[in-house]
Amino acid sequence: MGPMASGLTYSRKVSSAEAMKQLAATLAPYVHPGDVIVLSGDLGAGKTQFTQGLAAALGVREAVCSPTFNILLTYPEARVPLYHFDLYRLDSEAQLEDIAFYETVDGDGVSLVEWGDRFPDAMPYNYLDVCIVVNEDGSRTVRVRSAGDRARQLLYVWANDSKSRLVKC
Hints:
This protein is α/β, with parallel strands linked by helices. It has helices at 17-25, 47-57, 95-98, 101-105, 149-159; strands at 9-14, 36-41, 72-75, 82-86, 110-114, 127-134, 140-147, 167-168. The longest helix is centred in the N-terminal third of the chain and has 11 residues, at 47-57.
């Protein structure tokens, strides 16, 4: 039985980029060093908007863009240091060693991992799985699942914040 088996799942429909950022911002008060958020979804689904909302709410002042060409962008000035990975251009799990992935996700900050679903076996035991689906009407459905005990606790407090408007699945 994998860590997902004991996980919680919540979802919310969002109809705009602003709503996506607002949803992510409501997570910010609850994250701790060592928390990992894996973001999946099609190109243009809103992964970077989610990251922008979380980063702004953590106190990042600079513009946040997708780290596609850098693979990792770091925002040390946030309330909790923010590490934003984009694994889209990696070909193999072995390359995660080269970018200090394992040390970083176990480190002093919060890690947001775009395209982490490409290397499921490399993800840590504890993480929040945020999957963004584009609906036919252009809105997005954000499904959040927890893997591991810490992620379950994190999702529970986030979902119980009335501003998140997450609904249990």
